[in-house]
Design goal:
single chain, about 725 residues, elongated
C-alpha cells in the first residue's frame, strides 16, 4: 500500500516516527555508538549469541570459584571466544584461558566484576549510595523510575516473607516512588487448585504493601503528595487469573478506595483483551463510587519461551499468538481501547514499548482524542536511551503530561547478582530475535531496508487489529469432555502424549470440586465392596477383608471407603494355573486385536480420570496435582506399547512371541502409572497377567483393572490378585 493511500492517522504516525528516529540518531553518545556497533557484530555472528548465553547462564551457578572458572574456560575452549567482543576484551579472554585457573578466586571475582560493570546500564546496583544517585539523576531529568527487584524464584514461604519485607523497605525509602512486584514473589508455590485460599493470602500480603505505600507518600511535580505506587507484574499465564483477582479484590477494600495502583497485561495472550475489558468495567464502577483510577501497563509479553516449554511438557495448546504480527495487532487493539477517553479516565495507561512506530501512533492517537492526562510512555532502563531522550525533548516542547516517561529498572545487590543472569539471558534473546524492533534498531536509518521492514510490520499489524480473535487458546473442559471412539494409536499411526489437566482454567477447577465432593467420605458414605475374582469366577465363600480409610482424615469418625476381599494361597495357585492355561487364548490373538482392545482401555481411563483422581485421594492420600499426570502417563503407556510393537513388526524381520505369564507387582508410591504400564506392556505382547497391586493401593488396582476388563480384555488374561503381605505368589 502506498503512503498516499494510507489513512491520515497512519501518515502522521509514519512521519512522526521518521522525525523521532532522525533526531534520536543525532543524540547518540559515543558509548551508545560503541554498544550499537558491538550488537551489530553480534547479529552478524549468530553463534556468538549462543556462546554468550552459555557463558552467563552456566558458568556462575556454582559458588565455588574454581568450579565456576573451570566451566567458563571449558565453554570458551569448546565454543571459541565470541568475535563480537572488542579486540581488547578478546585479548583479555585469551590471557584468562592461559592463566585463569592459577588463581581462580581472583579470576572469578574479576569476571563477575566485569559482567556487572558491563550490565550496569540495564541492571542497576542496589547498593544505597549508587541507587540514590541514579534515582536523583532521573528525577532531575523528569523521568519516573519503576524498580524491579531481581532474584531467584521463591520456593518457600520463608523466602516469600523475606521478599515481602524487602518490598516494604523499598516503599519506605523516600527516594523510591514506584516498585513492581509479582504475586509469585510474595506467596510461594502458587497453584490454581488452591485458588481461593491462595487468593486470600495474596490479598493479605498485597494489602500490607499497599498500606506501606499509602503511609509513605511522595511529593509530585504539581505540589501534591501521593502514595507510593505498586505495580503488579504479570509473569505467566499460570498466574493471570490470580493476579487479576488479587488486584481487584484488594483494591475493593474500603481503605484502598483512594489508592492508585497498577497491573500489567500482555498483548501476546489473545484473552488479554478480554481481561482489559473486565478491568475497565471494574475500574469505571470504582471511579463512579468516588474511588481513584487505577493503571494498566501494556506490554507485548516477555515469557514466550517459558509458555512454549510448559505447553510442550503438559500437552496443552500454546497460550500466546503464533506470530509476532498477531501480537502486534492485539497490542494496537488494546492500545486503542485503552486510549478511549472514557476508559483512560478510569484506567490510566502505560505504553511499554521501544518500537518508534507504536510510540508515534500512541502520541498521534492521544492527540486526536484530546488525551492530556493518564498516559505514560514506559521503556526499559538502558535500552535505546537515545530514543528516550528524544521523547523527553518532545515533552519539554509540548509542555504537557501526555509524554510522561517511566523507566522500568531492574535492580539487584552484589550478593544477589547471579540471580539476575536469567534476566540478562532473556533480554539478550528477546532483543536479538528476528521480529523484534530493537534487533533492527542498532544504528538504523530512516529509509533503510530495516526501517522499511519495521514500517511494513507496523502497517500489517494495524490492518489486522480488528480481525484477530480474543478467544483463549486453552479451552480444555474436563467436565464436558467428549472422546471420539477412534482416538489413540490404533486409529492414528502417530503417537501423541496425553494432555494433563489444565488447572488454570476455572471450568477444570469446578470439575475438581465435584470430584472432591463425590469422593470425600462422610458419616453417610457407603463402603464399596471389591470381591475376589479368580479367572472369570467370583469367589463367594468367606474371605478375609481389608478395609481402606481416607488417610487425609485420620481423626474424623467416618466409615471405611473400600472393603477388599483377600486371596488365600489356594486362590493364588488357581489364578496361576488359569494364567498358564490361558482358556481365552489371549496368547493367540493378533497384535492388531490386542491393540484395538488396549486402545479401548486407554479410552476408559480417559473417561474415568475424575474417579481415578478421587480414588487415589481417598485411598492413598494423593493430591489431585500428583494423580492427574500419573493418569496421563498411564494412558500413554497403554497407547504406546502396542504402537511400538506395531512399528517393530513392520520395520524388522524379528519374530515376536509371548513369554507366557507375567507377574506385575508395582510399588505404592505411583499407584496408577507404574501398575498400568506393567499391565499394558505385558498384555500388548500377548502375555497373560497376574496383577498384584501394593497393599496400600488395592482399590486403585481394582479401578485400573476395570478399565481393561470393560474394554473387552478377558478376566482370565488379566487377573487381579490382592493378598496380604508375606503371602507368596
Amino acid at each position: 500500500m502506498k503512503k498516499t493511500d494510507l489513512p491520515e492517522i497512519l501518515r502522521k504516525t509514519i512521519a512522526l516516527a521518521e522525525k523521532w528516529q532522525n533526531r534520536a540518531n543525532t543524540l547518540r553518545t559515543k558509548d551508545e555508538l560503541k554498544q550499537q556497533q558491538m550488537m551489530r557484530r553480534l547479529l552478524n555472528h549468530p553463534s556468538d549469541k549462543t556462546v554468550v548465553m552459555h557463558l552467563v547462564d552456566q558458568s556462575f551457578r556454582s559458588g565455588n570459584p574454581r568450579r565456576a572458572v573451570d566451566q567458563f574456560r571449558y565453554l570458551l575452549e569448546h565454543h571459541g571466544i565470541p568475535r563480537f567482543f572488542p579486540q581488547v576484551e578478546q585479548w583479555l579472554l585469551k590471557i584468562f584461558l592461559r592463566f585463569g585457573n592459577i588463581l581462580p578466586q581472583i579470576s572469578h571475582s574479576q569476571i563477575l566484576r566485569k559482567i556487572r560493570a558491563d550490565t550496569r546500564r540495564t541492571i542497576l546496583p542496589e547498593e544505597p549510595e549508587i541507587l540514590k544517585a541514579h534515582l536523583n539523576k532521573r528525577q532531575v531529568e523528569g523521568v519516573q523510575v519503576n524498580l524491579n527487584h531481581l532474584g531467584e524464584a521463591v520456593l518457600g514461604d520463608g523466602e516469600a516473607l523475606n521478599r515481602l519485607k524487602h518490598y516494604g523497605e523499598s516503599l519506605r525509602n523516600p527516594d523510591i516512588h514506584t516498585i513492581s512486584i509479582k504475586i509469585s514473589n510474595i506467596v510461594a508455590q502458587l497453584h490454581p487448585l488452591g485458588f481461593e485460599n491462595e487468593l486470600d493470602l495474596i490479598c493479605e500480603r498485597l494489602s500490607e504493601l499497599y498500606r506501606i505505600a499509602a503511609e509513605n507518600p511522595v511529593l509530585h511535580s504539581d505540589g501534591t503528595r501521593h502514595a507510593k505506587f505498586v505495580n503488579l507484574d504479570m509473569e505467566s499465564y499460570h498466574d493471570l487469573d490470580l493476579t487479576m483477582a488479587a488486584f481487584m479484590r484488594t483494591l475493593d477494600q474500603a481503605e484502598f478506595k483512594n489508592l492508585q495502583a497498577g497491573i500489567v497485561l500482555q498483548a501476546y495472550l489473545p484473552d488479554s483483551f478480554l481481561r482489559q475489558q473486565e478491568l475497565v468495567k471494574w475500574a469505571k464502577k470504582r471511579v463512579k463510587n468516588a474511588g481513584s483510577p487505577v493503571k494498566m501497563r501494556l506490554v507485548k509479553g516477555a515469557n514466550l519461551v517459558m509458555e512454549a516449554v510448559e505447553a510442550e511438557i503438559f500437552g496443552w495448546p500454546l497460550t500466546v499468538f503464533e506470530s509476532k504480527i498477531e501480537t502486534d495487532a492485539n497490542f494496537k487493539r488494546m492500545l486503542e481501547f485503552g486510549l478511549q477517553p472514557e476508559n483512560i479516565a478510569a484506567v490510566h495507561f502505560g505504553l511499554a514499548s521501544h518500537n518508534l512506530f507504536d510510540l508515534a501512533y500512541t502520541h498521534v492517537l492521544a492527540e486526536e482524542r484530546g488525551i492530556t492526562e493518564g498516559l505514560v510512555f514506559e521503556m526499559l532502563e538502558g535500552m535505546a536511551d537515545h530514543v528516550r531522550r528524544t521523547l523527553q525533548e518532545e515533552k519539554r516542547k509540548a509542555k504537557t503530561k501526555e509524554t510522561n516517561l517511566l523507566l522500568y529498572t531492574p535492580v539487584t545487590s552484589q550478593d544477589q547478582f547471579i540471580s539476575a543472569i536469567a534476566y540478562l539471558v532473556r533480554r539478550l534473546d528477546e532483543n536479538t530475535s528476528p521480529d523484534n524492533f530493537l534487533r533492527h534498531s542498532f544504528d538504523i536509518r530512516v529509509g533503510s531496508s530495516e526501517w522499511k521492514f519495521l514500517e511494513n510490520q507496523f502497517l500489517e499489524a494495524w490492518q489486522l487489529k480488528d480481525k484477530i480473535s480474543s478467544e483463549p487458546r486453552r479451552q480444555q473442559n474436563r467436565d464436558k469432555e467428549v472422546f471420539p471412539e477412534n482416538l489413540g494409536t490404533f486409529a492414528d499411526s502417530i503417537f501423541r502424549n496425553e494432555a494433563d489437566t489444565d488447572w488454570v482454567l476455572p471450568e477444570n477447577r469446578k470439575w475438581a470440586d465435584k470430584i472432591r465432593k463425590k469422593w470425600q467420605p462422610t458419616a453417610n458414605t457407603k463402603v464399596k465392596i471389591i470381591p475376589l475374582y479368580i479367572g472369570n469366577s467370583e469367589i463367594r465363600s468367606k474371605r478375609k477383608q481389608q478395609l481402606f480409610f481416607d488417610p487425609s482424615q485420620p481423626a474424623v469418625d467416618v466409615p471405611a471407603i473400600y472393603s477388599v476381599a483377600l486371596a488365600t494361597k489356594t486362590d493364588v495357585k488357581k489364578a496361576v494355573k488359569i494364567a498358564k492355561d490361558d482358556p481365552e487364548q489371549w496368547r493367540h490373538t493378533t497384535l492388531s486385536e490386542r491393540h484395538e482392545l488396549l486402545s479401548g482401555a486407554a479410552l476408559n481411563m480417559r473417561k474415568r480420570r475424575g474417579d481415578l483422581i478421587g480414588a487415589a485421594a481417598s485411598v492413598c492420600g494423593k493430591t489431585f496435582y500428583e494423580s492427574d499426570p500419573e493418569i496421563s502417563e498411564a494412558i500413554d503407556f497403554i497407547e504406546y506399547y502396542p504402537h511400538s510393537l506395531r512399528l517393530m513388526e513392520q520395520h524388522t524381520s524379528l519374530k515376536l512371541s509371548p513369554l507366557g505369564v507375567v507377574l506385575v507387582i508395582p510399588p505404592w508410591n505411583f499407584p496408577i502409572a507404574i501398575p498400568t504400564g506393567g499391565v499394558a506392556a505385558a498384555l500388548a505382547c500377548g502375555n497373560t497377567v497376574l496383577f498384584k497391586p501394593s497393599p496400600l493401593a488395592f482399590p486403585l488396582g481394582a479401578e485400573i483393572a476395570k478399565c481393561f476388563w470393560d474394554a473387552g480384555i478377558p478376566r482370565e488374561a488379566l487377573q487381579l490378585v490382592c493378598c496380604e503381605n508375606g503371602e507368596p505368589i
